[in-house]
Amino acid sequence: MEPADVRRVACVGAGVIGGGWVAHFLAKGYEVTAWDPAPDAEARLRRLVDAAWPALTELGLAPGASVDNLTVADTLETAVRDAEFVQESAPEDLDIKRDLLARIDAATPAGVVVSSSTSGYGMTEMQTECATPQRLVVGHPFNPPYLIPLVEVVGGERTRPWAVRWAAEFFEVAGKSVITMDREVPGFIANRLQEAIWREALHMVANGEATVEQIDASITEGPGLRWPLLGPCLTFHLAGGEGGMAHMLDHFGPSLKSPWTRLEAPELTEELRDRMVRGCEDAAGGRSIAELVAERDRAVIAVMRAIEEVRRKS
Ligand SMILES: NC(=O)c1ccc[n+]([C@@H]2O[C@H](COP(=O)([O-])OP(=O)(O)OC[C@H]3O[C@@H](n4cnc5c(N)ncnc54)[C@H](O)[C@@H]3O)[C@@H](O)[C@H]2O)c1
Predict the structure, then answer these.
(1) What's the DSSP call for residue 265?
(2) CATH number of 37's domain
(3) What are the tens digits of pLDDT across the range 92-109?
């Protein structure tokens, strides 16, 4: 089946993330079947979907989208037996994931792609008990999956390339922004970056170097305002003025040896310098520094105004 022809999606595990996926797929017009073993799971799930629906309505529902397209199944096997795509969002525990993915694999029609929301396990270590591991991928979302577009897609050693391509295309069709990774890395990309900040924040609080309030304000009133438009690399490309990333690295390269964070920096070799400079040129896509600065400034103003409005109405 082509990704664009999918109509029926199964969500296994319906907590914060599974419920968020359910809301997202419903809003995009899919028929969704969910299963979760907790006795109160259905009530929790319906509360989550109802709470998300006004935001999804404001964003714009797909034709035919309705909360009535949600079915909560009594068993895992019923949930997945007619599915054309399966998203697993059970607790982050390797034994649970291994056992559950094997059960999903056994009950899901042949050739249907099964994706896991895992925050950090590789599919290689999760697909060990599956009879047909070739169709299993990681599709790592961000909370809440019904609003945050990013999904990181990566296969395991026993996943076939077609399944990774199919999943990436399906998520795009389903309205997500996809990063397909060629290699399994624990935590994928965004969680590794997020985790670096998180661990440093915990160190700072533990050592009495900063309060929780100071840490949050340092991001929301600082670099956080630039990141919605430009990621950390293009942001620093602009920190180099007209010399861009090349000047930024030549200027601040020695600071990589300073104790500005507990995470050790790699050696700034010529090769790494060149890769960063070329990468920024590619990411800039022909936009000059002056054009990027103008775009950044417009974005920062737009973001600040939007936040001001949200705060005023809260
Ligand atoms: N919370 C986040 O910000 C976040 C972000 C991205 C990915 N994830 C990943 O999503 C997955 C789910 O996390 P969550 O935050 O939704 O957790 P959660 O605790 O909110 O939900 C987990 C759900 O799984 C159910 N469950 C328990 N055992 C199960 C089983 N054997 N089979 C199926 N369902 C079972 C629970 O009843 C619960 O409803 C994890 O792998 C997590 O790492 C979480």
Answers:
(1) P
(2) 3.40.50.720
(3) 999 999 999 999 999 999
